[in-house]
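Please check this chain.
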Amino acid sequence: MGHPTVRGTQSFVHTLSACWKRPSLTALEVLWRWAFGAPAAALIWYEATRILGETQIDFGALKRMTVLDPMSAAATLSQTASELLPGVLRVAEWLAPLLLVVWVVVASFGRVAVLRRVDGNLQARPGTVMVLQALRMAALAGSFVAWFACLQAAAGYAVNGPIAAGLEPNLVLYCALVIVTTLGMFTLWAVVSWALSVAPLLAMLRNLGAGASLAAAFKLGPVRSKLVEINLVMGIVKIALIVLAMVFSACPLPFASVATPDFMLRWYGVVTVVYLIASDFFHVVRLVSYLELWKAYDGGA
């Protein structure tokens, strides 16, 4: 009979409604993410305040910065960064690997729990998922390195180059290059990272090891384009969530003369929490969309 044609976006919309009717999936996703995120944020906050307490920072100069004098603001930021960098690097040497290892472990068990909540027939393979999660984190770290290298190249072309030639830096061009580069890297990651995202699901569906599930992710046949489509939609959704969070964060600014600092702090906290919950919800939707597409095409078999 053949398989019916199922567009990725159609499956995404259907899955969006189905996940909305099962709030326990989002609750479980929020639980395991925040079980890691809350202690990690507290530890980072503690180390950040300790570094600030040990470093002589001219907070008055930071408050006097203005976009009307970008060169002075850049010099102030550079001076502040040079004073903070030694302490930050000392802490990052042990804190960054620790958080990455704990994240891989917690994320693996959390991902297995969510997927088995969606479909109890899936095989629990936390060890395999850990290996695949570590590979995904390594690839993500590589994308950040490439992104930062692009930003350095943009700064050299639009800022450092003109200054070396005795000309005014082109800050508008630099900002444009930063925006285009960031959106480009974001889209590229959405296009190429689908295999790393679907490999843990294949490991649980077919009871495969890390290498076999990663190889199987590149042999999904017609479902591959649907997964790419889902990833692109998720990229657009993430950008939309960020924009909405920025808009809601700016809503009280016209009333800044009457809004107290405590109110603004609570408002920003509420917006942040709502954004994180919405982001977790769409992570669940993506996972369930992958599973439903695989079932629709019988894994490409």
In short: The CA atoms of residues 148 and 295 lie 39 Å apart.
